[in-house]
Amino acid sequence: MDVVTVMLAGVGGQGTILAADVLAKVAVAQGLDVKLSEVHGMAQRGGAVDTVVRFGEKVYSPLTDPGRADHLVAFETIEAARRLQYLRPGGRLLVNSRVIQPLPVLIGVAEMPEELEARLDSEGAIFVDAEALACEAGSPKSANVVLLGALSTGLDFTEEAWREIISSRVPPKTVDVNLRAFELGRAACVEGECYG
Amino acid sequence: MSDTLMSGNEAVAHGAWEAGAVVGVGYPGTPSTETLEAFAKLPGIRAEWAPNEKVALEVAAGVSMGGARVLVTMKHVGVNVAADPLFTLAYTGVGGGIVILAADDPGMHSSQNEQDSRNWGPFAHVPVLEPSDSSEAREMTKAAFDISERFDVPVIVRSTTRISHSKGLVSSGERVGRDVIPYVSDPAKWLMLPSNARKRRSELDKRMRALAEFAEETTLNRIEGGDTSLGVVTSGVSYNYVREVLPSASVFKVGMSFPLPASKLARFAESVDRLVVVEEADPYLKTRLRSIGLEVEGIAIPTEGELTPGLVAQAFGLDTPLLREAISGLPPRPPLMCPGCPHRGVFHALRKIRAVVTGDIGCYTLGAMPPLSAMDSCVCMGASIGMTHGMHLAGGAEGRPIVAVIGDSTFAHSGITGLAHIAYNAGTGTVLVLDNRITAMTGHQGNPMMGRTLMGEQTVEIDVEKLCEALGVTRVRVVDPHDLAATEAAIREEIAADALSVVVAQSPCALLLKERNDAYSVDDEACTACGACSKIGCPAIGLEDSGKASIDVTLCVGCADCVQVCRFDAIETTGLACDIGGA
Ligand SMILES: Cc1ncc(C[n+]2csc(CCOP(=O)(O)OP(=O)(O)O)c2C)c(N)n1
User: Fold this and answer.
1) Does residue B334 form part of some domain?
2) DSSP labels for A8-66?
3) Ligand 1 binding pocket includes B436 (Cβ within 6 Å)
4) What is the mean pLDDT of the segment spanning A30-36?
5) Domain count along chain A
6) For residue A156, what is the domain's CATH number?
7) Which residue of A has its CA nearest to B532?
8) Tens of pLDDT along B482-505?
9) Which chain B residue has its CA at the smallest distance from A68's CA?
10) Do A87 and B244 touch (CB under 8 A)?
11) pTM of the model
């Protein structure tokens, strides 16, 4: 199998690292080689963060380049736009329809880009309202797992494999909520379409 | 044991543990931090955060002299701080093995500079190993302990952000029992008076020659044969990019980057038509290969920032992928002070006072960002205090007050000596210690100011007031930075006083608060759209199209800083608006 590259982009504190970790472990459980690259430290203080997971028969590089990612999972709309070029033409673009205004916008020194959703739409974005589905599952904090559910419909892993890893990776008390979140994300997002 | 996903840092910790290290000691610093945290969780060891890297390495020297193996962890700039003991430990050599993890940060994800720690090898005369992934991080750390004891020298394991913070599969093993070598007094080895040091200096050369021979035969350096039209010498993370981009090339993978295996490299050079080097950061290998007479072809590999597979492909003129059109005009998203951060109130005051702020390194460095924009310098840990004094010596700042700002961990790291300097030299000036009870920036590590060890024990904490008094600082006071008026008044008073003073702004990091207060909201009728609350730079406060403020209840932690800057009583408590518990 060719190496598959998934980039998860978001804002520090949104749970991209946990999501990437679950994805990586699902791939490991299928006997694949995996590399995962994340950034800690300063950027995590509300800055733009991205995590890359790559899996296949043999994976060397933990990093990827513009035009090379097969999937871009954006936890936030502006971050989807910021990382768009990483997604290869034909790659799958999943976007949480949430906007988190960066501080420069909040204090009025920068402006929000216009028609961002339309622009992403024209790039084939599949929008998911992860927070709403997460609330439906029982906690807004499970939005990252909703997005994994949405991502899962574009990857070749069984639902059971995902459920197993999610159950072992989230805090015990939240297993049910997270499994529901995963299901809702999955149901909302069949290949190519989305009902979020 | 089956393969598990580990970060490079976790793998180093595991390798050290397997090698029988009984002590781990270090100072936090991205990207090295999780190494010691992971080591602390393993059985049968003791792990300690030191106040700084120099102390960490000195503790390690003692562990080594006492006959046990020890792991020392730090980021690249930490090695500068530890350089003094490092250079002399190359002379003394070791008892129990000493392995130092030096984690570099090319691209400066979370650092004030770029440094290539491979250079310490030839500079300090210590061997340097360079893993390429997590699996090698474990193996090489184990090997490093053996090399350290066999060749009687501390060993540096050099990592980079993409090694430390990437995860890959590691097949870890069991811990090998290793007895502590009984202590025998040996001043000729450990007591570096010039007469002893001269002898050890000659010994060092012998050990380096033996190491150079070892470099020729060790499997740490390996040749991966391939198409002989292109030979690539590479190391560390770059090896992965070479393998990915140039799968058919002949590759010399350097695992031990000091000392280098000159003969083996020469043989490789002879076997290929073109010889190139692919490496991240300094042209370390290229320079050294050329200095041993090998003809290395120059290619366009950047020496600044991070390397990527794409940059390697570019350097070899390979096809670049098709790109989607970029979306331009996006607002930047810099890191920022969290909602409820106790540092905010201090910078709000400093901005109002129009102080020139010599700053330091930590979360509070974000006080330099708009809208607070209240920091003028940040050089290295501890620099704030010396620089404040130096500014006074230079005649001040056009009449503006000068204030040093330093975090609690940074104060313990290297601020105390700066304060001693000012007191001793009868200087004046105002030093603010931002005591949030933790080393926040690097992910909440303990430090000597906060009363808990890495092993989880309760312990003493530095009494800053008594400490300052003992240093000769007579004016010391503690304020709550969430009390904006009191904080501003205290800083103004101390600036006005003609004496050296210390203001300790004490309030825990907002991320440590177990219970948050009720969120606030804006009373639309009372709000006059004056914009005062947005000037404190809280990410929970936004502006409506009308110019009026609004508060994101999911972000607000109820610190009430904004309530205090609102002159129209337009910010009021709402009660807990959203269930944020759960997953
Ligand atoms: C010599 C050196 N070691 C380590 C670091 C990494 N580092 C940056 S800031 C910091 C500590 C910050 O803690 P503190 O001063 O308490 O401020 P806070 O982040 O809690 O506000 C550390 C360890 C560094 N920059 N330089």
Assistant:
1) no
2) EEEETTSSHHHHHHHHHHHHHHTT-EEEEE---GGGGTTSEEEEEEEEESS---S---T
3) yes
4) 97
5) 1
6) 3.40.920.10
7) A107
8) 999 999 999 999 999 999 999 999
9) B321
10) no
11) 0.96
